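Retry 2 of 3 after timeout on previous attempt. Resubmitting structure tokens to design endpoint.
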């Protein structure tokens, strides 16, 4: 595997003797011998993001802290990170060797400021994606509520007619009682005959036989509406940062309940849910992650397909595996699918934040996501959630590990 240095990859011409070295100056990444060998590069050629004064994005960049947010979006940074894998060095040792204590203190302050700024952006992105998801589901949820609501209203109209018929019949029998109390047997006999004819005309015997069914169906429909609203209410808590214990399997079922009406014409669900312990987490974030990955799976399916959701305990981790029979993802873009705003959909059909939000939500709860895919043969996303995660610490990640 050829491991290029940054000036060889970017072809910036700022290496000693390069075509732009006189105009822009020699890049410090080519001459900082203290970093030689880091990430198998020459000098700082494969840790350039740790240095001030490199030339990127059309201008000479500032300090490590100020430029890092741009560097982690850089194709070269991602290439080095992918090539080095577990041996990847962000450049912390380089900082200690290159900068003075005063400069390091300033870098630390800048990093703290950037971290707070990233947290704010992440929270906003989470809210944007959540609102987009709710908007996408609005029509489907309305339809899902409208179905039981329609037959509840129909049943109530029928019950109203039945109540009117029984009221009229009851009044006749009350009148018969009054006549009998006055010994007016002849008139009572006439009213009784009228009541009997009314009973047959309104088919009150049939009404009595079906009354329980009508009320049971209506209660079932109202319970269905209540459950939809309750699930949607839980899902729509955009800014809820509360930590709580949840049943992962139940959350999966709730997500499918919400999504189901939108995709039931093209997706069959297979649930293989194992026995799991209750999980202490930010429920809103976990729900969002599960929802986004299932929706992503559904969007990948052409024609009719299948989504399988599998859960199990593996040592001290809860494993959630979501597989689809969709179009799959080409190897060329598989390492980009978690990048913010990356999408293969047409303009206006997606925010490009779904998988980014899912990744950050899972990482913020101490977990990880691994994506596997074969183009034309579907994809599998595996979520791993540690049951022993220390949630007193802050976990923040804006980039996936490719």
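Retry 2 succeeded. Sequence:
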């Amino acid at each position: 595997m050829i491991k290029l240095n940054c000036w060889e990859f970017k072809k910036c011409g700022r290496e000693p003797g390069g075509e732009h070295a006189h105009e822009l100056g020699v890049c410090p990444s080519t001459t900082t011998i203290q970093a030689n060998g880091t990430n198998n590069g020459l000098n700082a050629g494969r840790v350039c993001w740790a240095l001030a004064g490199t030339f990127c994005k059309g201008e000479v960049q500032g300090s490590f802290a100020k430029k890092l947010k741009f560097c982690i979006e850089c194709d070269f940074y991602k290439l080095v990170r992918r090539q080095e894998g577990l041996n990847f060095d962000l450049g912390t040792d380089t900082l200690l060797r290159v900068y003075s204590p005063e400069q390091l203190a300033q870098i630390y302050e800048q990093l703290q400021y950037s971290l707070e700024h990233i947290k704010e952006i992440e929270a906003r992105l989470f809210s944007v994606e959540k609102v987009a998801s709710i908007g996408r589901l609005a029509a489907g949820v309305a339809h899902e509520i409208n179905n039981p609501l329609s037959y509840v209203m129909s049943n109530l109209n029928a019950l109203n007619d039945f109540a009117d018929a029984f009221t009229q019949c009851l009044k006749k029998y009350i009148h018969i009682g009054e006549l009998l109390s006055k010994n007016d047997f002849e008139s009572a006999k006439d009213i009784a005959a009228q009541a009997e004819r009314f009973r047959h005309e309104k088919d009150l015997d049939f009404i009595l036989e079906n009354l329980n069914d009508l009320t049971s169906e209506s209660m079932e429909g109202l319970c269905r509406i209540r459950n939809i609203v309750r699930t949607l209410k839980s899902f729509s808590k955009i800014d809820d940062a509360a930590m709580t214990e949840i049943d992962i399997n139940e959350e999966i079922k709730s997500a499918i309940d919400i999504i189901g009406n939108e995709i039931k014409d093209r997706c069959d669900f297979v649930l293989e849910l194992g026995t799991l312990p209750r999980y202490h987490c930010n429920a809103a974030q976990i729900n969002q992650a599960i929802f986004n990955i299932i929706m992503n799976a559904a969007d990948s399916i052409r024609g009719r397909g299948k989504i399988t959701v599998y859960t199990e305990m593996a040592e001290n981790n809860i494993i959630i595996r979501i597989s689809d029979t969709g179009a799959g993802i080409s190897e060329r873009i598989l390492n980009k699918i978690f990048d913010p705003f990356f999408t293969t959909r047409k303009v206006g059909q997606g925010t490009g934040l779904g998988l980014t939000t899912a990744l950050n939500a899972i990482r913020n709860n101490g977990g990880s996501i691994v994506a596997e895919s074969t183009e034309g043969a579907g994809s599998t996303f595996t979520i791993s959630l540690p049951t022993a995660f220390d949630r007193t610490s802050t976990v923040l990640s804006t980039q996936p590990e490719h």
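Attempt log closed. The longest strand covers residues 305-314.
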